Amino acid sequence: MLYFITGGAGFIGANFIHYMFNKYKDKITIVNIDNLTYAGDEKNLKNIDSVSKDGQYFFEKIDICNNEMIERLFHKYRPDYVINFAAESHVDRSIKTPQKFLQTNILGTQVLLDASLKYGVKRYHQVSTDEVYGSLTDVNDFFTETTLLDPSSPYSASKASADLICQAYYRTYQLPITISRCSNNYGPYQHQEKLIPMIIHKIIERKRIPIYGDGLNVRDWLYVEDHCSALDIILHQGEDNQIYNIGANNEKTNIDVTLCLINQVREILSINDGHLEKLIEFVEDRKGHDRRYAVDSNKLKTSFNWSATVDFNEGIKRTVHWYLKRLHLI
């Protein structure tokens, strides 16, 4: 089988490529389509040669909004599956410069859908986010796949729009699509501007750790390898035109995550510094900041017996260890 993976040099995409080659070995071919913007780094895939053979992995530096170039790629490779990770994804950036988010996340998706329809892919999968649902206020509530869309930022609005376009292509053209909406991911290869790697770097550099508002915003934290295993199942076993939530039931406040990271860095590096917590600095809250996200993954669990296997403490330990190793500190 031949897979088009867009955004494969980014955080989740790179992890997914590693996951697929580790699982399927020489049974697959992957074409990684990435424009290498600030969040995409080919170094994330520098070890791919150790798990793939000649002719199994190809890299194409292309913007998914470039209709002509995408058409050429589809004509050249004739993919069986397309999985779209490519997206502008940082909420703060979307608030400052929304146009780029609308262009990549909406129009880029449309370009991929058109090519997928023309070349008869077996499945087009859209990687979305739980942020399309908006914010939860009741601590006992969870987002389900039927929760009404209520995005709060230009980023989440662009992802919700892309989801609706995917569903329209199924209903209008019968293009076999699936959509997944995941909770916050963490793990190797994530860009430094995201919360967990940002905090790790701030701790190492002994710089102020900015935390929005009161630090009590809640997110469900999903280790990226668990996300990859769920995507693998959905891609190959999911039903057409279905949405699947992917979560881990690891709800943590931002301040709890920060304190956990401080303790992990302190433990792994044997740092005898009781003042690291003083690096925390509460700053003005993000505009339109959602208070809580939490997804109900029962549909995925009951349909395919999937569940997250990495608990938060173990996942954070692995994550901190990976970043410290990358910084040559261990």
Commentary on this structure:
By secondary structure, the chain is α/β, with parallel strands linked by helices. It has one domain (2-187, 223-250, 291-310): Rossmann fold, CATH 3.40.50.720. It has ten helices and twelve strands. The chain has helices at 11-24, 67-77, 91-96, 98-118, 154-173, 195-205, 224-237, 254-268, 298-304, 312-326, and strands spanning 2-6, 29-33, 57-60, 81-84, 123-129, 177-182, 184-186, 209-212, 218-223, 242-246, 251-253, 280-283. Strands 3-2-1-4-5-6-10 form a seven-stranded parallel sheet, sandwiched between helices. A three-stranded mixed sheet has the order 7-9-11. Strand 5, helix 5 (154-173) and strand 6 form a beta-alpha-beta unit. The chain is globular and about 60 Å long. The two termini are 39 Å apart. The mean pLDDT is 93. Its EC number is 4.2.1.46. It is an enzyme of class 4 (lyase). This is dTDP-glucose 4,6-dehydratase.
Produce the secondary structure layout:
Layout: E1 2-6, H1 11-24, E2 29-33, E3 57-60, H2 67-77, E4 81-84, H3 91-96, H4 98-118, E5 123-129, H5 154-173, E6 177-182, E7 184-186, H6 195-205, E8 209-212, E9 218-223, H7 224-237, E10 242-246, E11 251-253, H8 254-268, E12 280-283, H9 298-304, H10 312-326
Parallel strand pairs: 1-2, 1-4, 2-3, 4-5, 5-6, 6-10, 7-9, 8-12
Antiparallel strand pairs: 9-11
